[in-house]
Amino acid sequence: MTKIIALFNQSGGVGKTSLTMNLGYQLAQRDRKVLLVDMDPQSSLTSFLGLDIYQLDKTIYQSITQYESLPIHHNIHGMDLVPSNIQLSAAEMELVLAEFREVRLKDAIATVQEQYDFILIDCPPSLAILSYISLIAATHVLVPIQTHYKSLVGCNLLLETVARVRQRANRNLKVAGFIPTMHEGQTLQAKTSLSTIQTQLSSIAPVYPPIPRTIAFPDSAQMHEPLGLHSPKHPVIDILNQITDSLEII
User: Fold this and answer.
1) Numbers of helices and strands, H then E, in the chain
2) For residues 137 and 179, what is the distance between their CA atoms, to the nearest angstrom?
3) Do the beta carbons of residue 182 and residue 138 sit within 8 Å?
4) Whole-prediction pTM value?
5) Is 209 exposed, middle or buried (0-12, 13-18, 19+ CB in 10 A)?
């Protein structure tokens, strides 16, 4: 069965997009068929993978507002991509009164999901409709969470959102785990936050090893390459592989 994993956190800057690209790449390196879906109007995933967001004729926007086929760009570092651009921000308002808005993304993905082993959805940093329909389309949610006090404060709101989706709209949605990100292990705040994450969230789902803050991610994104291609011996690759191991058996 295809695993559709939404990387979701309403906070921005926690590493959702980098993880979407890099976990997708690690899965593709294991001969898994991977589709990435950019559901963020900021379009960082699309840009990271080298597409010019201003030159795109079709994006996920047309698929969820006009029922058009998914505009899939094939074989980008072994992965396929459904891109986005700023036009997607208009979908927030357009979908408010739209019929069957909750399942627009789910229905679009359903037309191609049998072609893939994994579909990774890069959610926007909000609790609005684009994140909501992403969670409805997903089989699993994976939560990057920065080892910082502010991120911990917002975690309850995130979990409440997931719980509401599971109550009605997607009863089969599972939490695949929590990924501590941008960890600065030398600071007391980061150490304390990581300990709190491990203590409070491990009863809900696995808490993966922390991913340290590193310039390697923005450097590789600037070159439009996953870290595993840009710097295959970087220590973070081992952590990404541990997470990938778990995603294959969820």
Assistant:
1) 11, 7
2) 21
3) no
4) 0.96
5) middle
Please count the residues of the chain.
250
Q: What is the pLDDT of residues 218-228, one digit of tens each?
A: 999 999 999 99
Tokens 């559709």 belong to which residue? Answer: 4
Instruction: Please state, in angstroms and rounded to a whole number, the distance separating the CA atoms of residues 5 and 23.
Output: 11
**Token pair for 17:** 């997009």
Residue type, position 206, single letter? P
Task: Give the N- to C-terminal CA distance of the chain in Å, as an integer.
Answer: 11
Q: How far apart are CA 111 and CA 100, in angstroms?
A: 16
- Residue 65: what pLDDT? 96
Q: Which residues of the chain have pLDDT under 50?
A: none
Residue of 109, 190, 129, 200 lying closest to 159 (CA atoms): 200
pLDDT value for 151:
73
Give the position of tokens 């952590």. 239
Question: In sequence order, what E strands does 71-223 have?
Answer: 73-76, 79-82, 118-122, 140-146, 174-181
Is there a contact between 205 and 176 (Cβ–Cβ < 8 Å)? Answer: yes
Handedness of CA 92, 96, 99, 102 (dihedral sign): positive
In DSSP terms, 81 is beta-bridged to 36, 73
